[in-house]
Amino acid sequence: MLVSAKDMLNKAKAGHYAVGQFNINNLEWTKAVLLTAQELNSPVILGVSEGAGKYMCGYKTVASMVTAMMDELKITVPVALHLDHGSYEGSFKCIEAGFSSIMFDGSHYPIDENIEKTRELVKICKDKGLSLEAEVGSIGGEEDGVIGAGEVADPKECKAIADLGVTMLAAGIGNIHGKYPANWTGLRFDTLDDIQALTGDMPLVLHGGTGIPDDMIKKAISLGVAKINVNTECQLSFAAATRKYIEEGKDLSGKGFDPRKLLAPGFEAIKATVKEKMELFGSVGKA
Ligand code: 13P
Fold it and tell me: Confidence band (pLDDT; 50, 70, 90) for 265?
């Protein structure tokens, strides 16, 4: 059964570790993340961007696939199915499709409009027992056409959104989706500290988990980050393993072209990346 992310994140914040959100793109991705979470006895959040939802034939298909797969694979660790960077309309579609967690990304609206729309979704999600993530100060880089400029959030605006009763809060602290450029100056821990001072027990979310050095991840967790999103890193490890298989000509020998063989190294590579991140974030054994 899918669960809201509320309990797992409150436990993570109190226990000084973070739960990984791993974005899914297809059946192999979903299976790799679920099996790794179960093997490591870790809670997990499956992230679905609007683009990935469309690619996987819509949110209902995704929700059905995930719940059926959990049943067939006998997954017993807590799993939240979460809309990633949802639009206002997309949030309602996912609530209807059976997602257990929603991110409404109103960071591109003027703050008052972000507050009003988030307030409305807080009420709906509370009534339905779903967790809700809100965002202040857009995340840098590009994800599914949503472009942010590496903004740093205003802690007072973070408090205004946190006070609405959201479950978790994503705040820009110089983080970027995708690979970090060579001239990246690192996370703004001063801002993170100020945000945590004003938002107290609220679990904070770090987007753009790919490529952040381990010591910065650990420091962010020590300053109140309880959810870390990883997407690109699984894509890169999947692509590298698939490239190696083909460059070694393995698809040309015997039945190596069988998709179950062709996609197997990439599948194992995703599992290895998810394991590495869960160990780093400290969520192993916390289910
Ligand atoms: P990366 O692709 O940089 O890992 O970021 C993922 C993310 O933040 C999803 O919202």
Answer: very high
209 in contact with ligand 1, CB cutoff 6 A: yes
Q: What is the dihedral of CA 120, 125, 131, 134, to 10 degrees?
A: -10
User: Is 14's pLDDT higher than 70?
Assistant: yes
List the beta bridge partners of residue 227: 19, 205
Q: Where are the domains of the chain?
A: 6-281
CATH superfamily of 6-281: Aldolase class I (3.20.20.70)
Q: Residue 161 carries which side chain, given as an amino acid letter? A: I
Ligand 1: atom nearest CA of 209 is 4
How far is CA 159 from each of CA 24, 77, 154, 164, rounded to the nearest angstrom?
Answer: 30, 32, 9, 9
CA nearest ligand 1 atom 5, residue: 208
Q: Is 233 in the pocket of ligand 1 (CB under 6 A)?
A: yes
Structure tokens at 143: 């994800």
What average pLDDT does this structure show over 237-244? 98
What are the C-alpha distances in Å from 114 to residues 87, 122, 196? 11, 12, 20
Dist. CA 255 → ligand 1 center (Å)? 35
